[in-house]
Design brief:
Layout lengths: L7 E11 L3 E12 L2 E13 L4 E11 L2 E14 L2 E9 L14 E8 L15 E7 L2 E8 L8 E5 L7 E2 L1 E3 L2 E9 L1 E9 L2 E3 L8 E2 L5 E7 L4 H16 L1
Amino acid sequence: MVEDGLWRYGATAEVLAGSNRIMGGVSAGIHETVGGTYRSAGLRLLAGWGGPALELRVDAWQTPGGDEATGGLAFILPFGGWSLRGFLGRTEPDPLTLAEPGGGAGGILLGRRLMGRDPLPPASPPLHEVLGAIGENAKVKIRVRPPGETRVVYLLGDFTLWEPVIMDRDGREWVVELEIPEGTHHFGFLADGEWFVPEDAPDAVPDEWGRRNATLVIEPEDPLADVTLEKATEGAVER
């Protein structure tokens, strides 16, 4: 049976923080629907060890039909060229279709890439280089050496609002220069449509999708550095 006149508006937000291996956070949401108000609050735990990743979700819901608790455990486990992905938990209520939580859900997917690419060389060049300061931002060159004969590479990061920015080919490397504000940023690459971060990328962290993200830190410029250099130059001239 299809019900007419369904509508929903609202939002859900998540905040995560942690180290390069373990991140924790909270979530909250509210949705107004034709059937009433749905509110949610939850906890998140993400852990990654290079390839393997684990995500734990626990949520408490207030629905027009009463209070509900949902949650689940998702994982990614690569081994020997294979990838094992799975989920086990209790489904969340759907504010749009007004469906209540189910008793439970789970599944396992086993996959293997049929066509591989050449592995990266043992030593990869640094992923970024700070070229200089432009106002409150830094001019940064980002480079990457994807495996095999990659045809097109895009850069995505929080400093691009996760919008793809095409990179230029320079021999075996792909490069792009951007202005990036100070702070800690996370980013990655799309190599021929596939998410890619070098295995030896420093301080790589998992995101909520189980992907690895590289980390880039732009330090604030020291305002005393120019003053110290100027005084040293004046002293040399006086002598």
